[in-house]
Amino acid sequence: MGHPLILLLGKNGQVGWELRRTLAPLGTILALDFPEIDLTEPIALRRIVLENRPAVVVNAAAYTAVDKAESDTLPALLINAKAPGLLAEAAKEVGALMVHYSTDYVYDGTRTLPYVETDPTNPLSAYGRTKLEGDLGVQASGADHLIFRLCWVYGARGQNFLLTMQRLAREREQLRVVSDQSGCPTWSRLIAEATAHAIRQTLGTSDRSSLSGIYHLAASGFATWHEFASRIIELMPAAERKCQRVEAIPTSAYPTPARRPAYSVLDCDKLRQTFGLQLPHWEESLRLVLDRI
Question: To 10 degrees, what angle do helices 188-203 and 14-22 make?
Answer without folding.
Answer: 50
